[in-house]
Design a protein that fits this description.
Two copies of one chain form a homodimer.
Chain A: E1 2-4, E2 7-9, E3 14-21, H1 23-26, E4 42-46, E5 49-52, H2 74-86, E6 89-94, H3 110-123, E7 127-134, H4 143-147, H5 149-163, E8 171-174, H6 189-203, E9 207-210, H7 226-243
């Protein structure tokens, strides 16, 4: 049984996934670089209701801007892989926001509360099935941010799961690129943060890390290109399958 | 003083407006038919935070679809007029959803709760200044829907104002087009609903109606074209000025 806008429908259950983090979860890939995903089993949340998934899924920025526009996200190919592999409906809850540091995702902050609200609305008509996280570039600016990341992440995930009444909900983290341009002043901190992600995966229940190895960045030196975003989403799905 | 993401900033106050209703509030005008609005005083809510306003403001549908894509909304030119006329910052809270009937906007329904949640988030960093409503085409399908509209609208507005703690917040209603194509099976009910709107404006406090006279529809016979959406937004602003 499927509930949509309060009305019972004879339709499949939507398995929903929360998208949170910064620009590489929101998606900055160029649409023209990859084929459009058209899958009738893939949905996205709009105004609390499910619409057929079309990119950009996560409209955190202007769509038509040349630089840093909302674009192709790893979450779209994650959803497509899920639907193809399982033959089940999947819905994305877009709550990622570009340029945000983990301090902005702590409980009580606008982004955290927004993600909780949207997920709760989505849960009226779907089965919450996982959380997709990609974030950390903004926390590679100095060592202090880097070394306080682990505890902040644990606090955030625990609070999020508690708010959603979903203590055992899987969360998949994606590695940062280790080829971020020097222009972004991150030094070797992305590789250090990737190590922290793997420690988190062993310390936080139901948590896995998707590898960024071999993925390519756009000319801006920080955002995954569209083809790599597609590949990254498949890796997120593979990690998800290790848990569920 | 301006509060953004919990941080006090020495910046102007954003005067925020909630966009609710169906497709002609969401906006279906063609971008290419009108000049882009670029006004540094105009913002839109994204993930609970303010971003510079760029259309489409209200991404309820696919952006790149040929038919019924998210497009130019009257709310964008409303915001632009407000900012130009008053020299003050204005922010839009996009919660409109195409094809929705007033029954779907009643208290407790997903769309109502979504609008309340988003407005409350917006109010952390803005001063709620008004509600923009355009809806009713979906309630012109039969007389029963038409004649129960008035009470439903009153119930919705009273509940919305109460939830937001904003009993005296202005609400501007826009008339339906009286030239909707016969393909939509609305008969002469749009003109009857327009009369009901004017009755509502005299019965509901702080409520005004913007005229649709002379505005043009797209070839689909139901959605205002982009130029008319721009004009309609100016009329909404004129009515707003009668109240504030």
């Amino acid at each position: 049984m499927f509930i949509k806008d309060g009305i019972e429908q004879d339709k499949e259950v939507i398995h929903s996934f929360l998208m949170i983090g910064q620009s590489n979860m929101a998606g900055r890939g160029e649409f023209s670089d990859v084929p459009v995903i058209r899958n009738r089993l893939c949905y996205m949340l709009r105004m609390g209701r499910w619409q057929t998934m079309r990119e950009p899924v996560n409209p955190d920025r202007d769509i038509f801007e040349i630089k840093y526009h909302s674009g192709t996200s790893l979450a779209a190919s994650f959803a497509n892989e899920y639907a193809i592999d399982r033959g089940e409906a999947v819905g994305l809850i877009p709550c990622a926001d570009g340029g945000t540091a983990i301090n902005q995702w702590m409980p009580g902050k606008v982004l955290f509360d927004h993600a909780v609200m949207m997920t709760k609305l989505a849960m009226r008509s779907s089965k919450l099935s996982g959380i997709l996280w990609h974030q950390g570039e903004s926390d590679c600016k100095n060592d202090e941010l880097l070394y306080s990341y682990k505890e902040k992440f644990k606090t955030m995930v625990a609070a999020l799961r508690k708010e959603l009444g979903a203590e055992d909900i899987p969360i998949i983290i994606g590695e940062l690129s280790e080829n971020i341009s020097d222009d972004w002043n991150v030094g070797d901190r992305p590789s250090k943060l990737n190590k922290i992600f793997h420690e988190l995966a062993s310390e936080v229940p139901f948590c896995r890390v998707a590898s960024s190895e071999g993925l390519n960045l756009k000319a801006d030196g920080i955002h995954f290109d569209a083809k790599s975003a597609r590949e990254f989403g498949k890796r997120y799905y593979q990690e998800y399958c290790e848990l569920k």
